[in-house]
Amino acid sequence: xxxxxxxxxxxxALGVFATLILGFGFPQxxxxxxxxxxxxxxxxxxxxxxxxxxxxxxxxxxxxxxVEQNGPQMVLGKHxxxxxxxxxxxxxxxGNALVTPVVSFVPEGNYDPPSGNLLxxxxxxxxxxxxxxxxxxxxxxxxxxxxxTICFIGDHGGSQAAQAAVAAKLDRAWTGQGIAxxxxxxxxxxxxxxxxxxxxxxxxxATIGFHAGIIDTSELLAxxxxxxxxxxxxxVPWNSEPTGDSGDPMHASVEYGKALLKIKIDAAxxxxxxxxxxxxxxxxxxx
Length: 287
Prior knowledge:
By secondary structure, the protein is an alpha/beta fold. It is about 50% helix and about 5% strand. The protein has a 4-stranded parallel sheet with strand order 2-1-3-4, with helices on both faces. It starts with a helix and ends in a 6-residue tail after the last helix. The model has no long low-confidence stretch (mean pLDDT about 90).
């Protein structure tokens, strides 16, 4: 037995010695890689993300969507598809941003008794505290990786308050470290501009509606057309149970959708660029 132990320790010692010799003779080389064509972090390797940050891609966009009922004509993942599309466009136009995967699980109302969209099967909601904790964890991960500007972009109304609170708290806590956290509220608060556009096209408040109406349906037609089936609306009987949509989604179109998405994208870019300009003015971050 003693000889076996000596043999094991000798093997370990030789391994350590060899490692030290190689370390001195052949210094460790840092992995590098060209920038990929994508801005979506989930489609990149860790080496690509690190290389992108070193090249100045220090803005991280965290899109939040939602899985909820959207009438009989649209899939439950409407918000996810829309915010994935818009966040990609925002990142590419900024030129120094990467995008995390979409956070799909967001507050949707009460469970027992159910309220809001949870009245309809398929809607998946989480408590606001759980959603806020998820955002905090994502932001802390991005900060540790080297991102200096973290932007929450939410496509769902029920997410806005929690996003704003988390962003404000983290921004205050990290400002001395050169890290900015932004709730991109202008992305969501474009109702007046979008409604004004539709009114110019001849639509009325009655046809525009609100949830799952012309705006939502048109945006999804532009972002993910296979997620819309307007024929389902034609099949709804006149005395139907509540369907979850409003207005007249039959007026929706890809043309409307492209214009409505552009309004949201442009608003987000303006707000993020204003934040970046503020960071630069005060010498914060690596811009």
